[in-house]
Amino acid sequence: MFESLLVANRGEIAVRVIRTARRLGIRTIAVHSTADADAPHVALADEAVELGPEPPAQSYLDVDAVLVAARRTGAQAVHPGYGFLSENPAFARRVAAAGLVWVGPDPESMERVSDKIDARNLMAAAGVPVAAGTEEPCADLEEAVRAVAEIGYPVMVKPSGGGGGIGMAVVEDETALRAAFDTARTRSSRFFGSDRILLERYIPRARHVEIQVLGLADGRVVALGERDCSVQRRHQKVIEETPSPGVGDELRRRMIDGAVRAAAAVGYRNAGTVECLVDPERQEFVFLEMNTRLQVEHPVTEMTFGVDLVEAQLLIAAGKPVQFEPDDLRPDGHAIEFRVYAEDPVRFLPSPGTLTEWVEPTGEGVRVDAGYRAGNTVSRSYDPLLAKLVVHGADRDEALARSRAAVAAFRISGVRTNLPFLAELLDAPEFVSGRYDTTTVPRLRG
Amino acid sequence: MMEVTSELAATVWKVEVAPGAPVQEEDTLLVLESMKMEIPVLAEGAGVVREIRVQEGDSVEEGDVLLVLE
User: Fold this and answer.
1) Which domain holds residue B41?
2) Fold topology of A4-103
3) Domain annotation covers residue B40
4) pLDDT by residue for chain A (446 residues), tens digit each?
5) Can you give the pTM of this predicted structure?
6) For residue B9, which residues of chain A lie inside 8 Å, CB to CB?
7) Is B36 in Cβ contact with A164 (below 8 Å)?
8) Cβ distance A151 to A134 under 8 Å?
9) CATH code for the domain in which residue B38 is found
């Protein structure tokens, strides 16, 4: 096993990775921008290196600065967290070329699924169901119009190289397609450096459900159940839970089989997630995309399966067997994660500022993964995730009851947060019944 | 005359109008960016752009005047 680890990230995920590494006796190195000098991940690590100024391009995304930090501190491995450089195969190659262990999948696997069009075609060939859609990028608007004549409306317009909901639009007819297509192309070029656009049949009132996979060092792929991520605002997740209230046992078996097939098709190693859309009425699913990193919402899986996924990642990266017997994995109870964002709870507008109060809830089954504490500044340069509140119960009702108490007890001042919105969701019949889908939040907010 | 102010602390990503330009209700005047999110600022009514107080790349605070319509 490597003896030191640089965590190339910030916020709650850097804290979370450092915690596990320290528990395993691995020396930890944090990196940070000038804005994050007082951040918890810096305080928790054995060593910390300042990368550069606040803008991510000059600090957390600066590959050379990260590698210099690794060399100077004698780091033997690099964990990228999620976001930033985590899904950048060029960075993974640079890490390996510097003689360091990359805690993630092979760059070749990352590349094969990084483009949504390529990934769809690959999965279809491997026997994983995909929605009707374009097998090649649409060259222009007229080609898009012709393609949709075959796919049928409504259609989702998506940047093929994108993520985070940026540039995505649902169109119901040709007029809307004409309006959306160029906007999607412009955004796609700006944010992702590619104007490849995918058109895919849109499933109204679908649930967004994903399967956690682990590609083991011996080449086996195992699945650790699903996470339902349908509660979203602006195509970004707000609440995730497992098991999904909309997935029956038979569908779950098919999804797990599909996810394992998908990961095996690219020779996947380490932790990954296969995202799917589920039609709850028909109990059918289609492949959406594969995320080649640790997912934000991985703790709900950890709480039901009783495993530390970061520990598994580190072991796999070191070429070792994981800490559990994969065939013996059984989930227990129900877990729900709430993303606590620095944003107003009505319109979800970002709310940067300085935190004057930070009191986390505690209690049976309650876990908080936080990236901030009182006195920290929440910068407008980074994403608005402040913390993840994760709650476990013997069943969904117990998890919901504990969640209500925990959300009420979480006290954050100095910035506006979505905690009141989370409390509202916990009382909304549609969420409480479990019969929610990706349109639930937009409908609640009209 | 109407001052258009920022609803949040953000960076000015794009100014979509020029001084003297006529605008309709719901037209995008400029686009702010904060916490990895684009926030368009729309005209609340028809008018003419009289003055633009910010440039692309500027930091603005909540309540800062971005431009003036009349």
Assistant:
1) 2-53
2) Rossmann fold (3.40.50)
3) yes
4) 999 999 999 999 999 999 999 999 999 999 999 999 999 999 999 999 999 999 999 999 999 999 999 999 999 999 999 999 999 999 999 999 999 999 999 999 999 999 999 999 999 999 999 999 999 999 899 999 999 999 999 999 999 988 777 788 999 999 999 989 988 998 888 888 888 999 999 988 899 999 999 999 999 999 999 999 999 998 899 999 999 999 999 999 999 999 999 999 999 999 999 999 999 999 999 999 999 999 999 999 999 999 999 999 999 999 999 999 999 999 999 999 999 999 999 999 999 999 999 999 999 999 999 999 999 999 999 999 999 999 999 999 999 999 999 999 999 999 999 999 999 999 999 999 999 999 999 999 87
5) 0.94
6) 350-353, 380
7) yes
8) yes
9) 2.40.50.100
Q: Would you tell me which residues 225-264 of chain A have a C-beta closer than 8 angstroms to some C-beta of chain B?
A: 234
Count residue pairs from A and B with Cβ separation < 8 A.
36
Q: Which of A16, A112, A293, A367 is catalytic?
A: A293
CB-CB contact of A144 with A138 (8 Å):
yes
Alpha-carbon distance values, A129 to A26, A186, A275, A284 (Å): 41, 30, 12, 9
In a domain, B34, yes or no: yes
CATH topology of domain A132-201: Dna Ligase; domain 1 (3.30.1490)
A53 touches chain B (CB under 8 A): no
Q: Which residue type is seen at A390? A: V
Residue A34: Cβ within 10 Å count: 12
Q: How many domains does chain B have?
A: 1
Give SS3 for A237: strand
Q: Which fold does the domain A207-444 belong to in CATH?
A: D-amino Acid Aminotransferase; Chain A, domain 1 (3.30.470)
ipTM of the complex as predicted: 0.85
Question: Chain B closest CA to A234's CA: distance in Å?
Answer: 10
Close Cβ partners of A162 (under 8 Å, ≥ 6 residues apart): A116, A168, A188, A191, A192
How far apart CA A269 and CA A272 sit, in angstroms, is 8
A112 is catalytic: no
